[in-house]
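Spore gernimation protein GerC
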Amino acid sequence: MKRNFTMLIMLIVFLLFTTGCWNRRELNELAITLAIGLDITKNGQYLVTAQVVNPAEVAGKGSGGTGNSPVIIYQAKGKTVFEAFRKMTKESPRKIYPSHLRILVIGESLAREGIGKPLDLLSRHWQVRSDFFTVVAKGMNAEDILKVPTTIEKIPANKLFSTLVVSEKEWAGTSAVTLDELIAGMISDGKKPVLTGIQADIKGDKETSLSKQNVEMIDPPARIKYGNLAVFKKDKLVGWLDEKQSKTYNVITNKEKSTVVNIACPKGGKAVYEVKKSNTDLKGKIKNGKPEIDLNVTVEGNVGEVECRIDLTKPETIEKLEKIYEKETKEMFKKAIEQVQVNYKVDIFGFGEAIHRADPKAWKNLKKDWGKNFENLPVNIKVQGEIRRVGTVGNSFLEKIK
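Tokens:
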């Protein structure tokens, strides 16, 4: 008994001395990568761009910064994405480390060819978290986006990440999509994915625009901005939504948090309806053997701006504005849905999933040719808008201007 106890103690001591992270690496051995760009070359190879943090330049004041760029670009080509990453060590003194990845930019050419294969590495690699956002470089390569120096945020990847979050929250024309959400959409039968488009707007001399001088100017010649949503069928880009279609998508999928909508005043002019709360109840049904969708959209908001002569102190005026908002918004939703049905025949709204929830048996047959069924799917839309506040003043001072 005593011998067994002694052996147990020795085993515990041995385990204590052998514990630790088998794959532990020191920070000075890693190239912290916050943004990755994926492109396809003319000969079919992948061009991978890594935006790596320059630690000496992003440290706190007094830590020895030299005034150089806060990030460094490394690039490599390969028949696979993994091969390209490893090839970067031919130039980088540290191994590319993507655990803190914030943004993945995919060039439009690669997106149209298919993003499934290059995404396999990022979904499989144990060092990559799946909470980064994925966007598509509209009309250009991903490398063109990642090479632009940015203002306010020293690290461009942080700028891209934060701008997408703010834009989705305040404008609702963009959509922040994680890797898990993207993959779920690609394999779903009833809801296909969308990704936000991004562009580099470069004016004047390109060399100046892509240098440190870009962030030293009050009006930078090169700016990065998000655009509208890209539509995917499985893993291939098939087209782009316009702004109204993009905002309609966010409302239907309950991703709209806030936005502003211009509406017509009863006697001419414009007013602005600021959306503060939005909820969409999406239900599917089988009617007379055919699928249908019921959309009930409930919106609460404020009058944010008035450029017309209306009396906001009267309840009937508020009711008129609410009715105008409801009518115009319903027409916008109807037109946007029909355009997606006709132009792309791709269910990005999740109507198929709603039919599946309502009648799994019927969905089993419908999903076999859902693209065609989606194209002719009736969508019943109901919009209810409510104005909560009219701001800190009642009627506009424009009433007093003769």
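The chain has a mean pLDDT of 91.
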